[in-house]
Hints:
Layout: H1 23-28, E1 35-37, H2 38-52, E2 59-60, H3 62-65, H4 83-97, E3 105-106, H5 107-121, E4 128-130, H6 131-157, E5 161-162, H7 163-177, E6 185-186, H8 187-190, H9 208-222, E7 229-230, H10 232-246, E8 253-254, H11 256-277
Antiparallel strand pairs: 1-4, 2-3, 5-8, 6-7
Helix pairs in contact: 2-5, 4-7, 4-10, 7-10
Amino acid sequence: MATAPGGTPQQAVGQPPPVPLPQWFVEIDTAKKGEVTRADFVKYRMKLFENLDANKDGKLTIEEFVKIAEPPYSNDVPGGPTLEERRNRIRAEFQNIDTNRNGFIERAEVEAVINAEFNQYDTDRDNKVTEPEVRLIVQRSLAREAAARREVEQRRRQGMAAINDFIDMQLREADRLDKNNDGKVSLQEYMVLAGPADGPQSQGLLPFDIRKQLVQRKFQEIDTNKDGQLDRVELTATAVKQFLEIDGNKDRFLTDDEFKKAQEEETKKTRAILQAMQPAQPAQPPRPAPAQPRAGQAPQPAPGAPAPGLPQGLPQGTR
């Protein structure tokens, strides 16, 4: 390969440019040795944790962690995800990292994720990452991301919904309920879903008390930390859970048929709940046996049964 003045290899004509090194590799490898050790990688990555930990208590809340989706950590790019889409992804990622489910991301949990990321680059498991290893992994990652974007756009044109679309839809519904704009939905705000207590709009609906009980039951299912508020973490977790349940063929997209089937299942579930809410009916006393006809007397038809001589299934008076 020809070299430019100074010894830098020139790019051969017709060949694609080499995959650029990630910024983290350039910033860590200040000595230009062409490699990064595991210890240096973990130390570098943990700087983000330190920056996000605003109150320096050694753990991150969802409010602190979601800052990753905002400038200067993440910016809008043409054709890229919106700010709200990025926030939704970060909220879902919070759930994945918070393995002990205490509502915080702790140092050990972050370090475990960072070490797992390092392992993806360290293909020969020598506890250091070289330039060739990084370029290969980045090239494969870019190819997968491009293929995923094409698939999402194609499915969207077909009317399907990806998981981020579903989460956005659920959070927009929650935002409409959040009348005081505090980022959470109280039980009082959520009870609007029960509908009107009376009036023309309540015609054909279940009794208002029943509707209130159903809505309150749903609120309690979402409110996993039992603080009487539905926050973005709980709403996102519920949306993810619902998506996985609705996605029957596990192709990561929801079709109209899957939505319809989910609605049917929800209707069955609601009917079962209503049946369980009904008070038990007292046992009916046995009816006395009908009097036996005297000899020569035709038996009387049972109440509601067709008169003797009429075929079953035809109403009386049609012959």
